[in-house]
Design brief:
Elements lengths: L1 H28 L6 H7 L2 H19 L8 H17 L6 H29 L5 H29 L3 H20 L21 H4 L2 H30 L5 H29 L1 H19 L5 H28 L6 H30 L3 H19 L21
Length: 403
Amino acid sequence: MKKTWLLGLGFFSISLTWALYNAFVPLFLDNYLTSAALIGFMMTIDNYFAMFLQPWIGHRSDKTQTKYGRRMPYLLIGMPLAAVFATIIPLHTGLVTLVLFMMLMNLSMSLFRAPTVALMPDITPEKNRTRANGVINFMGGVGSVLAFGVGSILYGIGSYVPFLFAGIIMLASMFVLKAVIKEPVLLESHPDAKPASPPVRIKDQLDKTTLFILGAIFFWFVAYQGVEALFTLYGTKHAGMTDGEASFSLTFFSLAFLIFALPSGWLGAKFGKKKIIMIGVCGLFLVFGSVVFVDSILLLRALLIIGGIFWACININSYPWIISTGREESIGTRTGIYYFVSSLAAIVSPPLLGWVIDVFGYQALFISASVGLLLALCCLFGASSEERTAGNGPLDKTPIAVD
């Protein structure tokens, strides 16, 4: 578990950097672009890499054999590049250089994100992977909270300071991981291992229940991703906040999610994943719908705290649910489908909700997010809560879920 906590530094630095990116880059783009839809589109660049480049990089890392291991070379190349390009984003001289630095940072992050995810099961015994997953998600949550909290203070000193902070943290994390994590150079199959099962076909996994669950996942990520990407603009242009106040307000949502992550998993195990997810969707629908009528920053932040609790009920239980409704042999395939759908939602949501803002004004942000949650709820009614995992292994032997 000590190595798991240290490996969590990789996810800590990733979450920290992305949170700062999502909070402040829209403000940079707003200096050059007048369309919220176009700004929203520019904020989806990372998700295109997530859909297409990261799976290929992860596959390549499986075949990589070096004296540093299979995954570490990608970290040693990608993390320094990402640190440099994240640091120079605020130093842009115009729209062209801003977009160029954004693209280079996103490309660099894609070089090591999938290998970092794969590194956890490489070094963690199968029986400990559930606890390792919890530790790593906790570390990622701490990174987001720190980004929104400390980042807003650093932004007040200078727009470049939070990004310099992120770059330093990423480099420090890389040195710690290199010093502590010693992955195997060659992973050989156990001589007594059973023959591999026939490959799982994707179309066989898309039964009625799975399709309804994936529909729900798509719609609630549309709601969440749109709010996350455009909230700083909403706060500054509609709620009368300063740049720092708007980004700091997101801290309350992330902190509530972090605190309630473990309890929501316990509730899902005790009362059923679908039931807790439905409570979360209904609750977040009410929270987002209420934000429209709130003028007070204090009350808005209180609602964000409640919203973070309900989002934990949704997000912590959704991945285990999509896995538990299929065969144990299909875990990898269903994981890939899960991340494809969530990445697709992240691509669609910011420009879609940005277009809605362009047409109806910033008050429409939380209205349209509420509609997304209502559609997710409709999909949940069509999904069966049946769990039909086959095989002798428990579900806690599933691979890590990083959101």
